[in-house]
Amino acid sequence: MTMSNSGISEKKPFRIFVGYDSREDLAYQVCHHSITKRSSIPVDIIPIVQSDLRKKGLYWRETGQLESTEFSFSRFLTPHLSDYQGWAMFIDCDFLYLSDIKELTDLIDDKYAIMCVQHDYTPKETSKMDGAVQTVYPRKNWSSMVLYNCGHPKNKTLTPEIVNTQTGAFLHRFQWLEDEDIGSIPFVWNFLEGHNRVVENDPTTQPKAVHYTRGGPWFDACKDCEFADLWLNELEEYSKENKKEADDSN
C-alpha cells in the first residue's frame, strides 16, 4: 500500500464521519450524495449514530440542555473510531459539498494534530431554525468540520472516557491541543450560510462546501435560505437516483 506525502493512503478510502441526527436524515443523505458524486478518490462515509454508539458502550454521556444535535459530543470519537490511525474527517450533516474532496485532502499537513476552518463567528440569532438554542462560545463552528490526524500522539487523549466526561469547552475549543497543533483550512470548505460572503470576481470566496449552520431547506422555515436552490437541486438528483436504484432492484 502506498502513501502520499499527506499520509493519505492512495488505495485505502478516505474516511469521512458524518454526524447523524434522526431529525435530519434527509440532510445526511444529500450531504453523502454531494460528496460521493464529486469525489475523484475513494471515500468511506460513516454516519456517527448516537444510539449505535450507546449500544456498543462507546457513548454514555447524558444529553445536556444545550446540545442542539445528537452528535454534539460523539463527533470527538472520530480518532477512536479510526483506531488512532491515519487521517479522517468529521463533518456535521448540514453540509453540501460543491467540490472534489481530493482538493481538501491535498491540503493535509502531517505536522498538525487537526486542521479546520478557523472561523471568527458570533451568530446574531438566539435560536436555530429548528428551535434549538444558538449558543455562543470561542472557536464557534471550528468543530463542525475537522480533519483529524488520528495517529497524532495528542489525539490519543480523545478516549471514550474523555469524550463522555469532559466539558463542552474542553472538547469544542480543542483544549487538549496547543494552538500550533491546529492547522488552518480556507473558509470556503466550511462556508457558513448567512455569515460568509461571496465576493464578486473573487473565485477564492466561492464556497466549496456550504454549511447551513442556521438550518437548511429540509426545514420548512429555511426554504428560502441562501444557497437553498443548490441543496434542493442536489436533493432532486439524489431522489431520482434513489428511485432508479429501487426500480432496478425490483
From TrEMBL:
<dbReference type="InterPro" id="IPR029044">
    <property type="entry name" value="Nucleotide-diphossugar_trans"/>
</dbReference>
<protein>
    <submittedName>
        <fullName>Protein CDI-like</fullName>
    </submittedName>
</protein>
